[in-house]
Amino acid sequence: MVLGWRRRRISHHAGKKHPDVELVVPNHFRCPISLELMKDPVTLSSGITYDRESIETWLEAGNFTCPVTNQILRNFDQIPNHTLRKMIQDWCVEKQNFGVERIPTPRIPVSPVEISEILFSVAASARRLDQYRCLEWVQKIEKWGAESERNRRCIVANGTAAVLAAAFDAFANDSVERNATVLEAILGALNWMFPLDVETQRSFGTQASLRCMVRFLRCKDLSPKQNSIEALKELVSCDQHIVEKLSDIEGVIEILVEFIRKQICPIITKASLTIVFHLISFPCSSEKIKLTFVRTGLVSLLLEILVDSDKSICEKALGAFDGLCGCKEGKEEAQSNALTVPVLVKKILRVSDLATEYSISALLKLCKYGGRDEGRVLVEALQVGAFQKLLLVLQVGCGDEAKEKATVLMKLLNPYRAGLECIDSVDFKNLKRSF
User: Fold this and answer.
1) Checking CA distances to 23, which of 47, 273, 387, 414 falls within 20 to 30 Å?
2) Of 327, 400, 328, 330, nearest to 360 (Cα)?
């Protein structure tokens, strides 16, 4: 590697003696990959030193050569270069008047052996139902994970999630009330290990574990609520059997609707909408589940959310709304709400392809299977520019399913177009422009 000097502009800091200057930074203090000042320099078998994070990213991408020399590495050992790190720290202290902050001394990364030992202890304490010892080990895992992204990847890669999920199930089966502290700690640790593998989903998706998470949803503290709702979202998104188990738990529907109504925080709102969507849409979903959601006022609530919401919330709300329109009571509730048709038409081609597909699907259900009110819905859809929007869907392109449903809906709308000729053309254009 060529050693040289690079100039770096350091901004003036309040209270510093020097104005903006070109600070000379030695090239050998920079990582050859990122060209940034190294925080944790490590040396490979090729003799070249890199910043640990940069070279780990390089190796994890499947590269087996040294980036500088291009020679094949004899091994992937990364030896900490303490001498160079100390030189960099001394240089930072020397240049602190220029606004340079001293890099902290890096912690030694966790090893697979250490993780295996901790996981053995977690499993043993869970079998004995020793919540205090188990809590101690879980907190150790959390501490390692907080130290670096490299530690997190190593922890996840060594099967930590499966062991923690099994421990969670064991303590949940024993007593949620007595073991609440360790259960909350395990849930918090698992939340940064998503997505889960099939084995972990099986351990984590037991009836006892699900009931425990639903109970945490009723907590006053935000953290257990957020961790539980995120875990439930992960589980229902992966396994339909878990969706069925969750739907059997008393009170879960009311809790989810309340979260959507109060909008405590964006994470909880989005996760609740996702879970509702899966509860409504999974193949074995009963009419009773949909009816319960309708009776809680979810149809009107979703329409209010759709009036002004960001993309991710809008997609999830439209998916849930489309699912509710699949039952008789849901259709009747949607048809009786003045916001339904204008909002659905407005969302076509305004949010995303997925949102467009859900909007068209919901409109089709209301128009084709809407009973005595389907004629009124078709006329209202025409009045707010649905036909023109659907024509654009066919022209600009969306998913095949969206195009197919748009074609069917246009055929339903076409006979009603002639009946609207009496509408003043100027007013009609203004009405369409607003959507």
Assistant:
1) 47
2) 400
